[in-house]
Amino acid sequence: MRCPFCGHEASQVKDSRPTDDGAAIRRRRQCEGCGARFTTFERIQLRELTVVKSEHRREPFERDKLLRSVSIAARKRPVEAIQLEKLVSGIQRQLETSGEAEVSSKRIGEMVMDGLKGLDSVAYIRFASVYREFSEARDFEEFAGSVEEVGRG
């Protein structure tokens, strides 16, 4: 593992433990070159996934990109980081175990919306406004109205 501080190639693992959600191993490392300590995370990856975008462009699935987008949607909301980690881990696990090497960005977006809907209605609406590309305030208003109805029903 290359040191993020000096670039030295060798480091020693000083401590390993599972993350709170159990989906990864957290490792504390010490660089053999400069002595700096840093943390790495190791996750299981069952298969390489390719995301097929709406323009038929393909790119590798990036867990961090997905986590970033749900974190932005949930910013300043009463949603814990561990809840977002579990949501993203669950989506990734479902995608990897589906048996498909390619998955549409639309499918991922729908999975995120389903997960956020159960966590926080504001984060759900925020994500939907970007994902569904609301172009007018009316689009946002109609969608938000449908969420209120679901919440009351």
Structurally, the number of domains stands at 2
N-to-C order of helices and strands: EEEEEHHEHHH
* Main sheet attributes: strand count, strand direction, barrel closure: 3 strands, antiparallel
Count of runs of 4 or more consecutive helical residues: 5
- The strand count comes to 6
Gross geometry: elongated
Average pLDDT value?
86
Radius of gyration: 19 Å
Ranges with pLDDT <50 over ≥5 residues? 149-153
**Proportion of residues in extended strands:** 15-25%
Distance between the termini: 52 Å
Lateral arrangement of strands in the main beta sheet: 1-2-3
The helix content is 40-55%
From the helix content, strand content and strand pairing, which structural class follows? alpha+beta
Describe this structure in words.
The chain is an alpha+beta fold and 153 residues long. It folds into 2 domains: 11-43; 50-152. It has 5 helices and 6 strands. A 3-stranded antiparallel beta sheet has the order 1-2-3, with no helix packed on it. It has a 3-stranded mixed beta sheet with strand order 5-4-6.
